[in-house]
Amino acid sequence: MNAKINFREKEKQILDQILGPGRYDARIRPSGINGTGDAPTLVRVNMFLRSISKIDDYKMEYSVQLTFREQWLDERLKFNNLGGRLKYLTLTEANRVWMPDLFFSNEKEGHFHNIIMPNVYIRIFPNGNVLYSIRISLTLSCPMNLKLYPLDKQTCSLRMASYGWTTDDLVFLWKEGDPVQVVKNLHLPRFTLEKFLTDYCNSKTNTGEYSCLKVDLLFKREFSYYLIQIYIPCCMLVIVSWVSFWLDQGAVPARVSLGVTTLLTMATQSSGINASLPPVSYTKAIDVWTGVCLTFVFGALLEFALVNYASRSDMHRENLKKTRREMEAAASMDAASDLLDTDSNATFAMKPLMRAGVDSKMRQCEIHITSKPKNCCRLWMSKFPTRSKRIDVISRITFPLVFALFNLAYWSTYLFRDEDEEK
């Protein structure tokens, strides 16, 4: 009767046979295609994105957790599979075999996961194929163009390259068929992962050409958060500043306090928005919005200053007219008394004739003036005798109309833009 085979003992014997002292040198890279020493070693890469925890606009970086895998052929590690019963050998020590010197070129911080045990394994297959898998967390740089913020799309890359081996010795390739996988329930608080693209990014330096791979992750910013937190409150502040146009021009404390309060609130809102963004040399879409809203609020405050000045000017004009009428009344009374005291009949007889001639000319002028058709706007504005009231009435129409035109231009510019302009 055949004795039962102890596969664990066989695994130990095979590992001692292929990795024993003097049999395998981890410092020497595997041979190339078909065992040729001059051809470069081909390493096929694939990964599984487990989570993207944050995308920081201020630091221009993002954090990702992934399972990273590499696969290559090392013919020195071939072994007998015992008739197909031994599918592969598993190692947990990466320093036992040769490893590609891959590094993440745009990485800021990174760490391995060691709870409960190190999250890493190496599988050696009977034909000499080696599969290396490890779970890592990385914080990677992501240069952003914030001209369209917060209506923008950002492309963040993950770049992998060889540090010491040139393309003559080591070449990285994407694994055929879905080299990058993303967890199905990936959730980002302010972004949506629209798509991702794989590509090659070989770099040439004065020490040689190095193989490089990259993944471009295209993120679209979720606009609903900014609509609720920024755009609607700014609109409300601008509309509240227009309330002063409907207040009486004599209510100075109410109109001043309303204008100053809305101006300070709008300035605070604008500074709070910029505090969460890096200082950049160009104008962002949110800067245009907050700047115009701040201008409208400031304009409403200046409008009251103009109304107040016009009101005082109207009062001064009324006082002058009143004084002039009193002086004319006094002069006419003096003239009438002089006429009554005069004894000259010729002079007294000529007065009515002269007055009749003047009255007829005045009537002709009035007929000529009234014959001209009046403008509708002037006719409507004539209902408001004072200049201060007219300024308020014009502002009630002009401010909302100009703000509506600005909204039309703003949203048509930033919402219906071409894809090429976003890059």
UniProtKB/TrEMBL annotation:
Its main location: membrane. Coiled coil: none annotated. Gene3D superfamilies: Neurotransmitter-gated ion-channel ligand-binding domain, Neurotransmitter-gated ion-channel transmembrane domain. Residues 11-221 form the Neurotransmitter-gated ion-channel ligand-binding domain. It is a multi-pass membrane protein. It comes from the Eukaryota. It is found in: Postsynaptic cell membrane. It holds the Pfam family Neur_chan_LBD. GO terms for cellular component: chloride channel complex; postsynaptic membrane. CDD domains: LGIC_ECD_GluCl, LGIC_TM_GluCl. Keywords: Cell membrane, Chloride, Chloride channel, Disulfide bond, Ion channel, Ion transport, Ligand-gated ion channel, Membrane, Postsynaptic cell membrane, Receptor, Signal, Synapse, Transmembrane, Transmembrane helix, Transport. Residues 230-326 form the Neurotransmitter-gated ion-channel transmembrane domain. InterPro entries: GABAA/Glycine_rcpt, GluCl_TM, Neur_chan_lig-bd, Neur_chan_lig-bd_sf, Neur_channel, Neuro-gated_channel_TM_sf, Neuro_actylchol_rec, Neurotrans-gated_channel_TM. GO terms for molecular function: extracellularly glutamate-gated chloride channel activity; transmembrane signaling receptor activity. The chain crosses the membrane at residues 223-247, 288-311, 393-413. Belongs to the ligand-gated ion channel (TC 1.A.9) family. Glutamate-gated chloride channel (TC 1.A.9.4) subfamily. This is Glutamate-gated chloride channel. It comes from Papilio machaon.
